[in-house]
Protein 1
Amino acid sequence: MHVTTELRMAEAMKTAARRCRLRSGRGGFSLLEMMLATAVLLGCVIVLGELAGIGNQHVDDIAGLSLAEVICQSTLNEMLSGAAAVESFERRAVPEHPGWTVSAEVTSTDRQRVASLRVMAWYESPQQTVSEQAAVRKHVFSLVRWIRDPYSPLPGGEGNGGGSPFSLMDQIGGGMGP
C-alpha cells in the first residue's frame, strides 16, 4: 500500500506541475512587461503633450496674424475712402485693439503718378521697452497697395490737393461715379 500511495503522490505532483505550467503559459503579464508598457505609454503622453503645446502656439500665431491683417485692411480702407489722409505715419496705436500698433508709408515710384501705400500692423507687449519691441515684433503683417500718387500733379497741371485716390480718379474722369 505504501507503493501505491507513493505512486499516487508522484502522479499528483506531476499533475500539479502540469497545471502550474499551463497556468504560466496562459497567465498575465510579468512585472517587467508592465513597467515597460507603462514607460512607453508615459513617453507617448509626453510627446503628445508637447505637440499640443506647439499646436496651441501656432493657433495663437495665426489668430495674431489674422487680426494684424484686419487692422491693415481697415487702415488702408480708411485712407482710400477719404476718411483718413493718405500720408505716411509711424507707430500709431489702434484704439479698438489695445497693444496693436500700425504705421503707413507712402512712397513715390519710378512710374509717373503711381505711389506705393504700405500699411504695417504688429503687436507690442506693454512689458517691453521700445528697442525690445522692435527686435521681437510678433504677428507683423504688411499690406501694399499701388495708388495714384497723392502728391503728383494732375495731367492738366492741377494739383491733387491731398485728396483721396478716389477723388483724384473722379477729377480726371476715371472714377466710378456718374
Protein 2
Amino acid sequence: MRPLHYLAALLSVSSVALADGAFYGDPPDATHPWGIHDHNRPQPSVVEPGSFSSQEKPGTPPSDAVVLFSGQESDLDQWQSDKNPAEPTKWIVKDGLLQCVPGSGYIQTKEKFADCQLHVEWSEPEDITGTSQGRGNSGVFLMGEVEVQVLDIYNNKTYSDGAAGAVYGINPPMANPIRKPGQWQVYDIVFRRPIFKDGKEVDPGYLTVFSNGVLVQDHTPLEGGGGHKKRSQAHPFPEVGPLKLQDHGNPVRFRNIWYRPLPKRAIDGGDTSVMSPEATAKKRAEIAAGIREDAAKLEGKAKMLRLFESTYYAANEDATQSATAMVNEFAAATKAIPADKLQSKKGEIMEVNNALQYLIKFQILPGDFAAAKTLNGIVKANEWDKKKK
C-alpha cells in the first residue's frame, strides 16, 4: 500500500503544469515526428528584425545575420580575389560602398556557406554606357556556382535569361522592377543547394529572389547552376562555398551585404514537418526519451501524464507500466472520494480522463483500459462531459 501523502500527490494540482498541447491534436505518425499543435516541438529562435533601406541610407540586418559588408574599410578583410592562389582584392571601399574596379577580377568572401537567406544591394553608374549585356553588368554567385544576374535593364533590352533578377542561363525574372541607374536596387534571395545521394540528384536546389520587393524567381530549380551559352547539367555542389561578386568591366557598387544560414531540409537530415519513415522513427524515439527524462524530475499526476505522453511518440514498456500503476492508484483514490467532495477535484479528474480517452482513441491504450473505465464512469455520472447550454 502506498502512503497517503503519495495518493494525495496524485490527486493534487502539480506545480509543474503541462503546457497547452498535450493529448490535444492528432499524434505523430509514420512521417510526422510531432503531433498537431505539439507543445514538445521546439520554439522558433527569437530574431530581432532589422530595418529597411532607403535610397539615402542602408537598413540594418536582423540580429542573427552574418554581415559580409557594412560600409567599413575593414570589411574588405572578409573578401579576397577569386584567383588561385587567392590574393587581396583590388576592389575598393569608397564613401562606404564596395565598388568594382573594372579589370580587377571577381571578388569572393573568405567565409564559405551554403543554404541561406541573402541580402544584397547594388547600384549602377548614373552615366549610361553600353547596351544589352554591356550595360552595368555584374552578378551575385551563390557558393560561386549559380548566378543571380546584376544588370542595368532600365529601358535596356537583353536576352531574358540574362536580365537583372534572372538565374543566369536558366530562368528569366517574372517581372522587371529595376529602378533607373544611380538608384539602389535590393535583392533578397533564398538559396538551397542541390543535394546528391549515392551519385544521384535527390534535390535540384532552388532559388527564390525578390527584386526591390517584387518576386522575380519563385523556387526556381537550379538545373546545374546555369552558365553562358551552354546548357548546364545537374552536378553536386560542394558542401559550402563562397559568395562571389562579378567583375564584368563595369564599376557597379554594392552595400549592405549579409546572410542568414538556413536549417537543413529533411532530405539533408534536417528536422522538418514531414520526414522519411526512418528519420521520423529516430526523431520520435529521441523526443520520447527526452519526455521520460523530464518525467523523472516530476511527481504525482504530472509525472504520470508525462510518462503517458511519451508513449505516443515511441512505445516503452517501463514508461507504460509505471504510468499505468500510477493511474490505477489515481482512479482508486478518486473512486474513494465522497460524492459531495468530487466537484472540488473535477479539473484534475477531467484532465486525466481526457488524456486516457485520447490514448484510447489513437489506440495507444486498449479500449478496455481499467482506469479509463473508472474515471469516465465518474465523469458521466456527474454529467461533466455535457456541454453547458
Protein 3
Amino acid sequence: MKPALRSRLITLSAAAGIIGPILFGVIVIALGYLWTGYNPLTQTISELGATNAPTMGLQALNFAILGILTTIFAIGLNIHNGFFRSTAIVVGMYGLGSLLVAFLPCNPGCSFRGSSVVQVAHSLDALISFTTIATAPLLFWRSSRTVPSWTKTSVWSLRVAIGSISLLCAPLAITVLSLSPYTGLLQRVFFGLLFAWMIVIAFHLFSLRGVRFPGSSSEDAHTSTVGSVHPSSSDNLGRSETSPKEPA
C-alpha cells in the first residue's frame, strides 16, 4: 500500500473512532430528553429504539451510524499495525453488531426474557457485542505492550480492561436476573469507559498516521528494513574508497 494512501485511510479511521462514540453519546442524551418520562438511570439505551418508543427511528439510525464508524475505525487499526489484528477483529464485530441491532428493535422494556423472535435476536446480538467490545482493551494491551510508540497506552488499556470486564459481568447479571432498577446507569458507565478508551486509541492512532510498522505489511517491512541502514555506513564506505593510500 502506498504511504500516502495508507496515511489517508488511517486518518479517516481515526476520525471515525473519535466521532462515532461522541456522536452516539450526544444523540442518546438528546433522545432521552425528547422522550417524556424516559429515565436514563433505570432504562437501557436500547429502549430508546424499542417498538413502542417515540424515538425508535432516530435511535435505529444512531445505532447504524455508530456501527459503520466503529467498523471503519477497526479497519484502520489493522492497517496501522498488523499486530493489532485481534483487537481490530473484536472492535469490528462490535461495529457490525451495532449496525445489525438497528434493524432489530426490542420489545417494550427490552427484557432478556422476551419470547419474540426479534427480541431474542436483539438480546443475542447485544450479548455478543457487549462481550467483544469489553475484551478489546485486554487484547490491545496484549498486542501493544511490545510496541514502543504504544507502551503508555498499553498500560492504560490493561486498567480499562479490568474495569470493562468487571462491568460487563455486573450489568449482564443485573439485567438478566433483574437484580437492580439501575440497569441504565450501569450500562452507561460500561459504555462510557469503553468509548473513552476507543477515543484515546483513535487520537493516538491519528498522531501516528505517518509511521510505518513492520507488522503492517510485507511492503512496509521491506521499507523499514531498507530505511534502517545507518547513514554513517555509506559515509564510511565512501571515505574508504576516496581516501588516498599512505606510502609504505
